């Protein structure tokens, strides 16, 4: 009999691809497949080449069309030129990508992976799926029909041995979790640092914008521990932080879940598959620790949260509502209830008092707190033990009564000075030229963060060909890093062009300043091979800025100016790092 087995591999930066992988796994379980789910960097790479069963890849997109961190090792491996062109001739595979079509390199990792597997002789089970955040139903708009097609093809090849397990039946929990009898002297396991983590102490937390300005932008300075070997990060690199839930939020949540009485009792966690829980999470711990450091109770819940919560509701009305949120037809309703107002898990559970999660299912229901990455604003060549972060505080209103507040920025704002936290470094997507080549930087708002490290590094090497276009609303409201920028200007180490959009009757943006400086910019680009960098909000700014540079090129006699700028992109002379 043909082995009914599936391997599902995910590459995930913020948790969405991982969540999707486990959703596919639950559907596979209902169809009586034996399923293993792992991150792409966890799997034995050679097992893909010898697999006699289908492999499903789920990968997200990060940065400007980059692979997520836990996909990079596998991706580099299968790109090796020494791999024979028919090495995967026995592999059946499927690829689903998660992306956002408003980005130029929409779903590039999934597209490249699908093509590379095919180049090595693999046989696609179905066409590649492209999940799109811009779809009115979000990623599910593409995932639902893709899965329907996938199961049709697979069940034709692997007929069902018995009927599909009904949707009303809960899957088995992924862990055994039991309270430990305290009289045996058990203690909490020590928490291990994630590899590559450095200890850093908060030494400064200052608001950079005016008190009456609508947006709070903070400068956080961290001092690295002298006792550890300090890495030399490159200009444009990011600091990675894993935030924590505040004590007050955790206390309220534990009370809400009726777990407050047992919050500090020891638990023994025994995962059925060790890949389910990261190694750094202690196997003997407490509910308070888990919901402070691991589970994201302030996240906006995804569809899978409602799929699992449905099984544990004791109210028929609540079950009916939860079931609607899990159907394809109910996704518009879920968007209205949850996604658009950014309703959190805590608020959803408050809305559904008869739906409570059993202890053994917490790892199947609650999402993991995702790492947050921030461009570093300081240069290691200047301050090797200090990491500066320029952070816009997330605080906005929706239809919900309470303002929406970011988990990480709330944690940072409430952090006391001298608090020590774990900090890691990650490569940024923008790279400085090695020599004294001129650089043209366009960084409205917090897009300036990485450019502070660019300029600081180049000034330390006596390179003064630095040109910055900075934009904000008001010179006296949100002119970030004003003092340091003007100091570099006064020392002839920087040429600065500012666009204060609200300081005059007509709005002025950085793209207008770019056009005004067209002769200078064309001279730098055409005669000195200057490199252009664009960083900031991805809403309209990147397209408007690129059009401004295209206009500059066209104004200087180039027939196909758009192709000229595109050629700069391909050769790394026009780089973007933008986000929503």
How do the strands and helices of this protein lay out in sequence?
Elements: E1 5-11, H1 16-30, E2 34-39, H2 45-50, E3 55-60, H3 72-78, E4 92-99, H4 108-119, E5 123-124, E6 129-132, H5 140-157, E7 175-179, E8 198-207, E9 217-224, E10 238-241, H6 247-256, E11 267-271, E12 284-285, H7 287-293, H8 303-309, H9 316-326, H10 331-339, H11 345-351, H12 362-365, E13 372-375, E14 386-392, E15 395-396, E16 404-405, H13 407-413, E17 420-426, E18 439-442, H14 449-460, E19 466-472, H15 482-490, E20 495-500, H16 510-516, H17 518-528, E21 531-537, H18 541-555, H19 561-570, E22 574-579
Parallel strand pairs: 1-2, 1-3, 3-4, 4-5, 4-6, 18-19, 18-21, 19-20, 21-22
Antiparallel strand pairs: 7-11, 8-9, 8-17, 9-14, 10-13, 10-17, 11-12, 15-16
Helix pairs in contact: 6-7, 8-9, 16-18, 17-18, 18-19
Strand content: 15-25%
Q: Which regions are unreliable across 5 or more consecutive residues at pLDDT < 50?
A: none
Radius of gyration: 26 Å
Distance between the termini: 50 Å
How large is the count of helical segments? 19
What is the number of E strands? 22
What structural category do the secondary elements indicate?
A: alpha/beta
The major beta sheet can be summarized as: 6 strands, parallel
